[in-house]
């Protein structure tokens, strides 16, 4: 701390002095020799489609990153860590895959398929070394909302033996839901692939961190509510659309009286056991290098207990059921269903990519490598598209599995490939052993794994202290996603987040700048005690850009801050001008009438032989001229007074001396100008000019100047001589009576 203070004090004592001419925009262009070279669109397109040998090789290797890093894989350094990490993550895939399949409303074995095929595809095309792709709770619940909406239980009720009884065709329902899940996954993969090919990876920038965290928290609430039926052993009615979560909760509360006690006991015991085991595992993590597979041990114990006690028959506890061994052949997606799930597929594509790239960038920053956002889109797109052909449902990356992969020594995508091999072994040999596993146990695993997302409610307090707008985005995203479901909630949340940006540009901070004594630095006068305004010069700045949404507010703030309402000033000026003209006309009319009267009197006297007397004429015998103010545009008070018989108009006092000599608009925060913005600046310059106040612009970026040129801001009377690179240049220029031969001496 003391060393930093010494460095700061030394920096304060270092003086410098700059001496140069005051430069406007034209002078800067001449001194710096502005380049007008631009690449035409035709040349850009030609360069984009040009294919050379090195370029083709580079594109191909970037499309298949495996060919780049695998030949240089450091086997001795990374092999052991990747092996241990891959086995650990593969063991986690088993319970999570089966549990998240329930969220997707498909049989558990399809969760294992989704933990195998997509991982192999990402191993080939992905660029992140540390994320663990596979099933994810948020994606699964979004899939579940589609499958249950398009294939509700009511469509698979078949008549029973009795007249009024019906039974549910579970096999037919599950087959249809698997087809729906695979189709929407395939379509979401196509969306991701297309977005990646057109280099649209920046779309994730619209998903801010508060939005993503709030969205995953709200999705976790959907997940919890969807699993309550497995924990209580009840069968609530399926609801879809907005407010479906509220209706489902009400339905579950109404059915609590029909709770299966055996299922509830299994759920409670499993949750308590998982929480205790995870706490013990966290305490033992310092001594044991490999994490304890708590979920795997839980499902093994639960399966053995269920088999020994025959929970399905004796207590009516619902179990996983048949798990076929082996792999399935690829199946074409149901093309007839694509039209009904376009919105859902696009939401899946955006959410899955947003979560994966966010986590991938965190690890990339921590371990000093680069993640290609567009290639990640392609990798996830291929994983989902190809996985959809093998009856998988949409995947993303899991924070918990990724943390385990890193903590157990995983250093490359090889760990993911090894975890896929573990799942392959389970699918071929071990999967059928878990047929007696209660679904309540899988629901309990989901609850416990979601505790991290529930902790994100703490973001509200931290955001309240740091940024209240982000807090509002968090809360609104949470509310919208809970009420409107994950698909519509995401769209509404993004729209609201963008609206907050628009509102912030409409409500910027407007300031009058003053000079820091002895420097060329200008700061808002209301924020500093020693900053003083330049006499006769008003320096105005807005903290936001100038465009159609805030142009009118910009003008209003300028009038308010400068104390000069040009519109009222010009209106008052026009009224005075009209009043002056009326008085002149009245005076001239009266003078003409008096002249005719005198001429008549003179004629009468001449007829009587009397000599006429002109008391109001000069020696030449001419009528006196009317004295009045010229129409020069000044705001002068005129008075009419009569001198004997002739009315004269006198000029009033000088114009209001409280008007500033010049107004300087600091446009350094403006990064673009639309046509409304250019028109606004043109009107400001014109109106203040008519009021006798000169307007200067400073700090204009090149794009802003080009917009002004295209918008016909400049003409023969208005040139770039009113543009300056800095506020200080504009101040010196206006102080020296528009003389550019001014030398600036600045001491800091």
Structural overview:
- This protein is an alpha/beta fold.
- The chain contains 28 helices and 14 strands.
- Strands 7-6-8-11-12-13 form a six-stranded mixed sheet. Strands 1-14 form a two-stranded antiparallel ribbon. Strands 2-5 form a two-stranded antiparallel sheet.
- Helix 11 (209-232) runs antiparallel to helix 20.
- It is elongated, with a radius of gyration of 40 Å.
- 37% of the residues are buried.
- Pfam families: STAS (PF01740), Sulfate_transp (PF00916).
- Residues 527-734 form the STAS domain.
- Residues 600-611 have a biased composition (Basic and acidic residues).
- GO terms for molecular function: secondary active sulfate transmembrane transporter activity.
Provide keyphrases for this structure.
alpha/beta; 6-stranded mixed sheet; two-stranded antiparallel ribbon; elongated
């Amino acid at each position: 701390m003391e060393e930093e203070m010494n460095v700061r004090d030394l920096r304060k004592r270092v003086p410098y002095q700059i001496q140069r001419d005051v430069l406007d925009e034209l002078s800067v262009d001449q001194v710096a020799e502005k380049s007008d070279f631009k690449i035409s669109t035709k040349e850009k397109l030609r360069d984009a489609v040009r294919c050379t040998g090195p370029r083709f090789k580079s594109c191909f290797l970037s499309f298949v990153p495996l060919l780049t890093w695998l030949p240089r894989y450091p086997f001795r350094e990374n092999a052991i860590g990747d092996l241990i990490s891959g086995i650990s993550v593969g063991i986690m895939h088993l319970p999570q895959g089966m549990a998240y399949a329930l969220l997707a409303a498909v049989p558990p074995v399809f969760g294992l398929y989704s933990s195998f095929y997509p991982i192999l595809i990402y191993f080939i095309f992905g660029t992140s070394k540390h994320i663990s792709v596979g099933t994810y709770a948020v994606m699964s619940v979004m899939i579940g909302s589609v499958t249950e909406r398009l294939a509700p239980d009511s469509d698979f009720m078949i008549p029973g033996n009795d007249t009024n009884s019906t039974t549910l065709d579970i096999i037919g329902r599950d087959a249809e839901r698997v087809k729906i899940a695979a189709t929407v996954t395939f379509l979401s993969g196509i969306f991701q692939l297309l977005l990646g090919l057109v280099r649209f990876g920046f779309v994730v920038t619209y998903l801010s961190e508060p939005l993503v965290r709030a969205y995953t928290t709200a999705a976790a609430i959907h997940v919890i509510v969807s699993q309550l039926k497995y924990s209580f052993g009840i069968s609530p009615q399926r609801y879809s659309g907005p407010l479906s979560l509220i209706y489902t909760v009400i339905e579950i509360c109404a059915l609590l009286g029909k709770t299966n006690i055996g299922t509830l006991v299994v759920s409670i015991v499993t949750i308590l056991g998982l929480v205790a085991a995870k706490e013990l595992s966290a305490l033992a993590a310092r001594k044991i290098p490999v994490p304890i597979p708590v979920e795997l041990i839980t499902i093994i114990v639960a399966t053995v207990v269920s088999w020994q006690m025959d929970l399905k028959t004796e207590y009516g506890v619902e179990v996983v059921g048949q798990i076929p061994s082996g792999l399935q052949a690829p199946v074409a997606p149901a093309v007839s269903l694509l039209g009904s799930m376009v919105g859902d597929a696009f939401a899946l594509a955006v959410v899955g990519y947003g979560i994966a790239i966010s986590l991938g960038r965190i690890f990339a920053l921590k371990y000093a490598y680069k993640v290609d956002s567009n290639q990640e889109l392609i990798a996830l797109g291929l994983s989902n598209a190809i996985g959809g052909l093998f009856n998988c449902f949409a995947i993303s990356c899991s924070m918990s599995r990724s943390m385990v992969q890193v903590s157990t020594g995983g250093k490359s995508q090889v760990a993911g490939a090894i975890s896929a091999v573990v799942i392959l072994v389970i699918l071929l040999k071990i999967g059928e052993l878990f047929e007696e596993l209660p679904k309540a146990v899988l629901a309990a695993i989901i609850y416990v794994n979601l505790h991290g997302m529930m902790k994100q409610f703490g973001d509200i307090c931290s955001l309240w202290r740091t940024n209240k707008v982000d807090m509002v985005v968090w809360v609104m995203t949470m509310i919208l996603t809970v009420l409107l479901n994950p698909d519509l909630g995401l769209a509404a949340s993004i729209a609201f987040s963008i609206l907050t940006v628009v509102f912030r540009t409409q409500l910027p901070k407007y300031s009058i700048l003053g000079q820091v004594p002895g420097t060329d630095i200008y700061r808002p006068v209301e924020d500093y005690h020693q900053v003083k305004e330049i006499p006769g010069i008003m320096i105005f700045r807005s903290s936001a850009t100038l465009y159609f949404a805030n142009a009118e507010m910009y003008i209003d703030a300028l009038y308010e801050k400068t104390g000069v309402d040009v519109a009222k000033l010009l209106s008052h000026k026009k009224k005075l001008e009209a009043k002056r003209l009326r008085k002149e006309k009245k005076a001239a009319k009266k003078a003409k009438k008096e002249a005719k009267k005198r001429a008549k009197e003179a004629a009468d006297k001449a007829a009587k032989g009397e000599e006429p007397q002109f008391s109001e004429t000069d020696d030449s015998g001419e009528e006196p001229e009317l004295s009045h103010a010229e129409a020069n545009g000044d705001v002068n008070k005129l008075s009419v007074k009569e001198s004997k018989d002739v009315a004269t108009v006198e000029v009033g006092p000088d114009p209001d001396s409280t008007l500033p000599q010049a107004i300087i608009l600091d446009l350094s925060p403006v990064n673009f100008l639309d046509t409304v913005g250019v028109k606004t600046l043109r009107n400001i310059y014109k109106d203040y000019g008519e009021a006798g106040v000169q307007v200067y612009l400073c700090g204009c970026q090149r794009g802003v100047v080009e917009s002004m040129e295209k918008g016909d801001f400049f003409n023969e009377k208005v040139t770039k001589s009113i543009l300056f690179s800095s506020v200080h240049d504009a101040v010196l220029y206006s102080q020296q009576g528009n003389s550019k031969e001014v030398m600036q001496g600045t001491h800091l």
